[in-house]
Fold this sequence. Notes:
The protein is mainly α. The chain has helices at 3-31, 37-57, 61-79. Helix 1 (3-31) packs antiparallel against helix 2 (37-57), helix 1 (3-31) runs parallel beside helix 3 (61-79) and helix 2 (37-57) runs antiparallel to helix 3.
Amino acid sequence: MTDARRARWAAVGTGALLTCAGLGAALLRSVGAAPALVPAAYALGAAVCALAAVLGARGRTRRALWLLIAGVMIMAIGDQFD
């Protein structure tokens, strides 16, 4: 495999994994007594990670990396409101 193909698969896999984790956390937080901002932040972070996975599949791995970082940061900041 070439380095570019490996980077694409890494971006897609990481984006999909973080999307699933963010959506799962949003569902778990929405059931509990957390403020509404917390599940919304997890869902927004998951959406950003899903966009990163799509960009990674198209070969935009550098932008995908920055979006993955931004998505995780959104989830982490949203978790601070709990």
